[in-house]
Amino acid sequence: MGKVMIAPSVLGCDQGNLAEEALALQIAGADMIHLDVMDGVFVPVLTVGAGTAASIIRRVDIPVDAHLMVQKPSHLINAFADAGCSYITVHAEVTSHLDRLLQQIRTAGSRAGVAVNPSTPVDFLRWVAPAVDLVLIMAVNPGYGGQKHLDYIHDKIPEVRHILDCNGGGEALISVDGGVTDANAEKLISRGADILVSGSFITGSRDPAAAMERLR
Ligand code: DX5
Ligand code: ZN
User: Are 76 and 51 contacting, i.e. CB atoms less than 8 angstroms apart?
Assistant: First the structure.
């Protein structure tokens, strides 16, 4: 178990200045940048496209993971991979062809992630464990920052770890996303989270560097 990585979500940042905001977070100690991509259909909010991802990636030296909260990720994967996203994460709930989507991400040159909403069971991971590089466990219902962390998803973390380890996905990382703060970070890490995605706790803080240290 290596050091836990902190991936600030830039959803709460100035959407017209994301490259600079991401650089400031890198300087403040971020390990990765979490970019929430929303299409206004899968979730009722619209955010940014691959062009914005590219401008952020040109500005920072740390990996950018694109969290695609979109209904038709197959339309967007290649553009986000071409933009240079290190990870591209699709939602299990939007497809009957998850293995094909994960292959498309890897073929396009990015690492493949799958996200699961709070109510989504994780046993399907048994069949795609060799095809994933990251599992994003949602601790809120996606679409918004600043929501209440749903503690009941904590049991998913060791369950996902077990399924991955037993089915050829031992290298995959587990990331938790939603309402992550210093009130729950220790519990998430002890349950096996490798990456903590945190938005408002970091970007709403006067001192993002201190906020990230508190999470660690
Ligand atoms: C929600 C996004 C999260 C969100 C996290 O749909 O996927 O990444 O930005 O923000 P907080 O930490 O404020 O819940
Ligand atoms: Zn996210």
Answer: no
pTM listed for this prediction: 0.98
Amino acid present at 61: D
Ligand 2 geometric centre to CA of 163 (Å)? 22
Pocket of ligand 1 (CB under 6 A): 9, 11, 34, 36, 67, 69, 140, 142-143, 145-147, 177-180, 197-201
Q: What DSSP state is assigned to residue 108? A: T
* CA separation for the pair 91, 101 (Å, rounded): 10
Length of the chain: 216
Residue closest via CA to ligand 1's atom 2 equals: 142
Q: Which residues contact 148 (CB under 8 A, 6 or more apart)?
A: 140, 179
Predicted confidence (pLDDT) per residue in 159-170, tens digit? 999 999 999 999
Q: Is 36 a catalytic residue?
A: yes
Has 61 been annotated as catalytic? no
The active-site residue out of 39, 65, 133, 177 is 177
- 84-134 per-position pLDDT tens digit: 999 999 999 999 999 999 999 999 999 999 999 999 999 999 999 999 999
Hey, is 152 helix, strand or coil? Answer: helix
